[in-house]
Write a structure and sequence with these properties.
The chain is an alpha+beta fold. It is built from 3 helices and 9 strands; from the N terminus they run E-H-E-E-E-E-H-E-E-E-E-H. The chain has a single domain, classed as 2,3-Dihydroxybiphenyl 1,2-Dioxygenase, domain 1, CATH 3.10.180. The protein is about 25% helix and about 30% strand.
Length: about 160
C-alpha cells in the first residue's frame, strides 16, 4: 500500500466563485493561487492555499463542472505514485484521468460509492499561476521523467525534486 502523506486538498462545487474567493481570502486568510474561466478545458475554477509556498492549493472550487469534486491524497515519490497506479489497474479499478498539472502528476478514480479520489506527487515545478495547466499524460515512468525534465527547463523548480 502507498505511504500517503495525507489528504492535501479537496475539490468542491462552487456556485459563485467571486463570493467564495472573497470569503476564503478575507475571512479565512487564504491566497488565490489560480483561477480559470468557464471556457477552459475543465471549466470555471478557483484554487486557494493557506500555505502557497508549501502546497499549490488546499481547496479548489469547480463551478462549471461539479463532477470534478474530489479528495486528493499526496504520495512522497514518483515511484510510489506509479506503484499505486499499477496496483489500482491490477485490481481492475477504472482510472478516470491521468494528468500532468505541471505542479503535480496525478491519477483519478472513484471509491465504491462514486466519490472521486486523486492521488498525486508534487513535481515542484514553478508553473506560473496564470497558466491553466492540466492535460492527459501516459503514466509510464520514462514519459513522466521526460515531461518533468522538459517542464523544469521551461519553468524551473521550487525545490529539489526526487524521482525515486
Amino acid at each position: 500500500m502507498p505511504n500517503f502523506i495525507g489528504v492535501r486538498h479537496v475539490g468542491l462545487e462552487g456556485k459563485n466563485l467571486a463570493t467564495l474567493a472573497e470569503f476564503y481570502r478575507d475571512v479565512m486568510g487564504m491566497t488565490i493561487v489560480r483561477e480559470s474561466p468557464a471556457d477552459s478545458p475543465f471549466g470555471a475554477s478557483l484554487f486557494l492555499s493557506a500555505h502557497p509556498e508549501e502546497e499549490d492549493h488546499e481547496v479548489v472550487f469547480f463551478q462549471t463542472n461539479p463532477l470534478l469534486a474530489h479528495t486528493a491524497f499526496k504520495v512522497a515519490s514518483l515511484g510510489e505514485l506509479l506503484t499505486f497506479y499499477r496496483q489500482m489497474k491490477e485490481r481492475g479499478l477504472p482510472i478516470k484521468f491521468t494528468l500532468n498539472h505541471g505542479t503535480s502528476f496525478s491519477f483519478y478514480f472513484d471509491d465504491p460509492e462514486g466519490h472521486m479520489i486523486e492521488v498525486y506527487w508534487p513535481t515542484n515545478v514553478l508553473v506560473p499561476p496564470s497558466l491553466s495547466y492540466a492535460y492527459p499524460i501516459d503514466f509510464d515512468e520514462e514519459v513522466l521523467q521526460r515531461e518533468l525534465e522538459s517542464m523544469t527547463r521551461q519553468f524551473g523548480l521550487s525545490t529539489a525534486s526526487t524521482l525515486k
